Amino acid sequence: MPIIIQQRSKCIGCNYCVEQAPEHWRMSKKDGKATLIGAVQKKEFWSLKIQEAEKEKNVNASKACPVKIIQIR
Ligand code: SF4
């Protein structure tokens, strides 16, 4: 299964990931950064396993992220 990894601390809150994959991303009203919904935190990295069918949208989110903090493995 693919895994999304976000280095959340470096998020600049541009909303591009939400536009690409709204099922997995939302903007936090608390700190203005993107939250990977349902993700597990390990230090500054958040990760979430997804289905193969959900990968493409998140690859697009990764490509759209201006600070390159979204990885898909
Ligand atoms: S695309 Fe990157 S910088 Fe922009 S909100 Fe999403 S994670 Fe943050």
Please render the helix and strand layout as text.
Elements: E1 3-7, H1 16-20, E2 25-27, E3 34-36, E4 40-42, E5 45-49, H2 55-64, E6 70-72
Antiparallel strand pairs: 1-5, 1-6, 2-3, 4-5
Bound molecules: iron/sulfur cluster (SF4).
The site of iron/sulfur cluster (SF4) has 15 residues, from helix 1.
Structural account:
With 73 residues, this protein is of the alpha+beta class. The protein has a single domain, classed as Alpha-Beta Plaits, CATH 3.30.70.20. It has 2 helices and 6 strands. The protein has helices spanning 16-20, 55-64; strands at 3-7, 25-27, 34-36, 40-42, 45-49, 70-72. A hairpin with a 6-residue loop joins strand 2 (25-27) and strand 3 (34-36). The radius of gyration is 11 Å and the shape is globular. The relative contact order is 0.35. The chain binds iron/sulfur cluster. Residues 6, 11-17, 34, 64-67, 69-70 line the site of iron/sulfur cluster.
Total count of domains: 1
- The portion of residues forming beta strands comes to 25-35%
Ligands: iron/sulfur cluster
Category from helices, strands and their pairing = alpha+beta
